[in-house]
Fold:
Amino acid sequence: MSSPATTRPTPPTGETPAEEPLPSPYTPDREAKGAHKQDPTAFSPSRALLQNNPSARNPFLPQKNFRTGKWISPRFGLRQQADLVKLAIRYNVEPLLPLGRKSTEFKATRLAERGLRIKGTGIGQKVKGHKWERTMETRLEDRRKAMMEMPEMIRLWKQRGHGRGWQRWPKR
Structure:
């Protein structure tokens, strides 16, 4: 079970969810030459999840000591965090754990933010891709239009006498 922040709300009974077309990763233009480096000071949804409250310390995150200025390491290391999260997922109590780098919610946010580890698949990025990938959308659209016009083309073909079946070639 995933945390409430990552689950989609179910529509009220009697209503069906509207089917939204998925955005295509294929771009017919060459606007996107490559992914630009992100500004380290810019807002990041994944970084916003990992904010530590000084009054109630998160044992999964490091914290800066305000008196000395030194960093206090997290109480649980990354391997222990991963084990705890796996155990919490098994017993459906993950939403009760504090957020950390190994939590499902953080990983889903990070994946949406950074993409699928393929350049250009993150939020607001475009894929340069191979030429066949860039031209795929237009080819699929042409193919769809041709399939829509197929019954008319068959009717015209039969009117001209081409649809009488197989005709043998004359013998020599």
User: Anything to note?
Assistant: Residues 45-126 form one domain. The radius of gyration is 28 Å. Residues 29-35 have pLDDT under 50 and may be disordered. The chain is about 35% helix and 0% strand.
